[in-house]
Structures are given as structure tokens and as C-alpha cells.
Write a structure and sequence with these properties.
9-stranded mixed sheet, alpha/beta, 15 helices, 9 strands, 2 domains
């Protein structure tokens, strides 16, 4: 067994100095000390290296990419370097509670079947990221049918599971590569969640979910559809079209989209709670598209779209969108 029990994996790219320092201080005050902390600087400004190396802690290891590669490849580089039995994921702007490592290591030591362990987390020390109580099956089902239930900076992975199945972060799923990795682990190991807050996630204007919300939703939807196919041993129709719709883009082919939606909902009938949830998610996507589309021609098309009837959308609300988003935008263009 490796002398180092845990390898903390942290990619860094121009993190705000105060956030990076908070992150570092939260780790160096851990009750558990058998760890190495691997940083991969993804071609940041010089202050990142200066801050990390100013701590003079021998457990902290700094490497730097020759060019900007992104968080996925940076994490993969650190995973390959890691000497620990367990990999503790931590983004450079988040923090961990002082007993996070101790409690996660204890759980994994006593549950060798679990290869992916999350914890509850807060957002900016206030709202809970996810406070549902999961067992392995319900957490796995949530990942497949409802989306990511794991805060990345709360996750500890068993490295042997990743190596055995040759699993790493996939760059083609950026910026939802963390969720895609968890989906890849489904069926290969058990999942677990510690039902206590051991991590704090920072949410602010430059978070990737704020900068690239549509792309993140699109990539997450693609990862989810692949997980559904794998979990149910089925083939879904027009995954790209479904993912595009899930990221609030105007349907390119309404009839093909409707056919794809009906197919996936019918294939999920054995999981009615998730089938109903997915239907509600699609209905919300349709409403968001209608509400945010300021185009006369598109609003006219949406008004007569078969999606309106399928989602049982009232004609009154649809006319409201048509008038306030369609006719008014058209009249403004005419008056210019």
C-alpha cells in the first residue's frame, strides 16, 4: 500500500488570490495529514506560482503546463502523477472542512466496494448544493436520469478503479467533464454520499456555469444521454437534437425533436419518477425558449408548434409570448 493515503487534485488557472489562499488554508488545517497536494498551473499569471510556493509545505507539489490545456487535461495529468490510494478532488476556489479527508478516508477504508464518494456541500457558505439523502442505487439513478448530484470539490475517488477501467476526464465533454466522469463510473463501482457538509463551493460571476451556461448544459445532457443508453442498454434517437433543446436552443427540427422526446420518455416508463421529471424538464426548456425568444418569425413558428400541444401549454400564455416577444420586437424593427 502506498505510504501516501490521499492525493489532492487541484487544477489552477488565474484563481482570485483571496480564494486560492482560503482554499490552501482549508487543506493545511485538515485533521488528516497523510496526503500529497498536487497543483497543476494551467499557464496562469505569475502570482499563482508565487502564492502556492510561499507556503513551503513539503506535501504541496506544483507543476505547470507549457500551454493552457483546460481543467480536464490538467486533472488527468495530476491523476497520473498521484501516489495516493484515494484522489480528493478540489477546485482552487473552493474550501474543505477540517475533517473532510478524515471522514472520507474512514468511509472508503470501511467500504471497499465504493469507488466514488461525495459529501454535502454549501454554496458560498449558505445554500446547500444538494441535501438529498442517497444510497448507492438512488445516487446512481440520479446521476443517470436526473443529472449531477455531486459537488466536484467534495468527491473522493478510488484511484484503482480509474486505472482498472482506464477512466480519465474527457476533453470533449468540457465544461461538464466532471459529470461525464461520474457517468463513466456507473456500473463499475458503487457510489456513496456522506450526509454532512464537508465542502464549500464558491459561485460567482466568472464561474464556468455563469460564463458558458448553454455549453455546459449541452455537454451535460450528452453525458446524461450516453449514461441512459448504457444503463438501460438502449439506443436513443437524435441525442444532439435533445441536448441542444436541453440547453435552451430553438429546435431546428420540431418534428424530429418531438419524436426523440417521445421515444426517450417511453423508454423510461420503468422509472416513472424520472420519466415525469424529464418531461417537466423538457416542458421548462420549451417555456424558457418561448419566453426568451424575441423574434416574430420564431414566435409564430412556436405558436403553431406541435410542442405546444405535447407540453399542454395554454394558448393564452403562448399568445402572451407571441405578442410581447414577437409582435413587439417586429414593430420595433419596423420603426427604426
Amino acid at each position: 500500500m502506498s505510504k501516501i493515503k490521499v492525493s489532492i487534485i487541484t487544477p489552477v488557472y488565474n484563481t482570485k488570490p483571496e480564494y486560492l489562499k482560503e482554499c490552501i488554508n482549508s487543506v493545511l488545517t485538515q485533521k488528516f495529514d497523510s496526503f500529497e497536494w498536487l497543483f497543476c498551473d494551467d499557464c496562469s499569471k505569475p502570482y499563482i506560482k508565487q502564492i502556492i510556493e510561499s507556503y513551503k509545505d513539503p506535501r504541496m507539489v506544483y507543476v505547470r503546463n507549457d500551454k493552457n490545456l483546460g481543467a480536464a487535461e490538467s486533472r488527468n495529468r495530476l491523476i497520473d502523477m498521484a501516489k495516493g490510494e484515494y484522489l480528493a478532488l478540489l477546485d482552487s476556489d473552493d474550501t474543505m472542512h477540517k475533517d473532510r479527508l478524515l471522514k472520507q478516508v474512514s468511509f472508503l477504508d470501511n467500504n471497499p466496494n465504493v469507488g466514488c464518494l461525495g459529501t454535502w456541500a454549501t454554496i458560498n457558505n449558505k445554500k446547500l448544493f444538494n441535501d438529498k439523502k442517497f444510497n448507492s442505487q438512488t445516487l446512481e439513478e440520479h446521476l443517470v436520469f436526473a443529472g449531477c448530484a455531486l459537488c466536484n470539490s467534495s468527491v473522493m475517488l478510488r484511484k484503482s478503479v480509474l486505472n482498472k477501467h482506464n477512466i480519465r476526464y474527457k476533453t470533449d465533454f468540457i465544461p461538464a467533464e466532471d459529470y461525464a466522469l461520474y457517468c463513466d463510473l456507473i456500473g463499475l463501482t458503487d457510489f456513496a454520499m456522506l450526509h454532512e457538509v464537508l465542502c464549500d463551493y464558491k459561485y460567482y460571476d466568472t464561474n464556468i456555469s455563469n460564463r458558458l451556461p448553454k455549453l455546459q448544459k449541452y455537454k451535460a445532457a450528452l453525458a446524461q444521454y450516453q449514461a441512459i443508453e448504457k444503463y438501460l442498454n438502449i439506443s436513443l434517437f437524435n441525442k444532439d437534437l435533445l441536448a441542444d433543446f436541453s440547453s435552451f436552443n430553438i429546435p431546428k427540427d420540431t418534428h424530429k425533436l418531438l419524436e426523440a422526446i417521445k421515444l426517450i420518455l417511453s423508454q423510461l416508463k420503468q422509472f416513472p419518477q424520472y420519466s415525469d421529471k424529464l418531461y417537466d424538464t423538457y416542458k421548462n426548456c420549451y417555456r424558457v425558449i418561448c419566453y426568451k425568444t424575441h423574434s416574430f418569425s420564431t414566435q409564430f413558428r412556436l405558436l403553431y408548434s406541435p410542442l405546444r400541444k405535447f407540453f399542454n401549454q395554454s394558448i393564452g400564455w403562448q399568445l402572451f409570448c407571441f405578442i410581447t416577444r414577437g409582435l413587439l420586437s417586429f414593430s420595433k424593427k419596423e420603426t427604426k
